[in-house]
Amino acid sequence: MRTAEDLIRSTGNQEVLVVPPDLADLARGVAFVAGWDGPLHVLVNNAGVMALPDLQLSPEGWETHLAINHLAHLALAVGLHDALAAAGNARIVSLTSRGHLRSPVVFDDMHFSSRPYDPMLAYRQSKTANVLFAVEATRQWAANGITANAVHPGAITATNLGRHMDPAVTARIMSSGIYANKTVEQGAATSVLIATSPQLEGIGGRYFEDCNEAVVSEHSAWNDPAARVAAYALDPDAATRLWQVSSEALSASRGPASSLVRSVNRAL
Q1: CA gyration radius for the chain?
Q2: Which residues are catalytic?
Q3: Comparing 94 with 14, which gets the higher pLDDT?
Q4: Residue 23: what pLDDT?
Q5: What architecture (CATH level 2) is domain 39-259?
Q6: Reported pTM
Q7: How many CA atoms lie within 13 Å of 177's alpha carbon, on the beta-carbon side?
């Protein structure tokens, strides 16, 4: 509500509606989709969790980072496909992190069923999934006028995303020079640019950081202050594989998202 009040006050636009879809609960996400009416020009997939100290599973049995950061966003985007297509030139912004440079999607054990659970690996894998989502969504939906790009907003310690992090670890990372501590407004700048710039009309499947497209790196140079994106995060084969595996997981889930994904995928 505070954000809505700020928008109304700063723009004078009284038609600001707040409907919070809880992406930790797929049923609420599906209800949000069902209640949407009309075209949708911009979808920013910004919800996220980070560094949960213990392995937690969603009601569907999915590791929580992957469930919220990736699978719930995929279900939301798929459910809103027709609304995005109706806009004619819609854009999806998929929030990711430089942390993706330290883990690809481990397809053999995405949910830490057999490998030891590591909070940061779980987070980093989900962030790679966010980039791969943008690659595949653009491949599948560009013909419908929908493009998707991945954005690393930067380190914004004023938010509560890092609430599960050890403060000493956070302080050490922030003092290393790898990240610059951004304000909320500075962190939002790249997302706003990717969502609105005429220069990006029809462009998708890319990764942006600090309002610029990142350089593709064959090596996981996560501690290089220069903007980098891992080659595996832009791999079209991995993107297609992740979309297929994720759609199958959503379709097989015993919940409202299953029928949603099945019905939309049949139409594509």
Answers
A1: 18
A2: 123
A3: 94
A4: 78
A5: 3-Layer(aba) Sandwich (3.40)
A6: 0.90
A7: 3
